[in-house]
Design a protein that fits this description.
Blueprint lengths: L1 H14 L5 H12 L7 E3 L8 E4 L2 E5 L6 E3 L2 H11 L4
Antiparallel strand pairs: 1-4, 2-3
């Protein structure tokens, strides 16, 4: 995945001025930051269409076909999508 992100950053850099050295430094620091927690089970494909809501509360989570292990922060991205979803 890192290689594809780097490739896309290079493509974007040739077309815009968005990819600065500061952005590259931040990315490199993030890539080199040690993981300080053990891998946990996570959904792997958590997005609004896989979250069941009833009366404004999460009632369930479906489609566990991509269950995996990794950094639990991955599933937080799904919650962010849910918060900013247009209803």
């Amino acid at each position: 995945m890192s290689a594809s992100v780097e490739e896309r950053m290079q493509q974007l850099q040739t077309k815009t001025n968005l990819i600065t050295q500061k952005l590259r430094d931040i990315r490199n620091r993030a890539l080199n930051t040690p993981v300080d927690v053990e891998a946990k089970w996570l959904h792997g494909d958590l997005h609004p269409r896989n979250i069941l809501v009833e009366d404004g509360a999460i009632a369930g989570i479906i489609d566990w076909g991509d269950i995996t292990s990794g950094d639990i922060a991955t599933d937080l991205a799904g919650l962010i999508f849910l918060l900013f979803r247009d209803y």
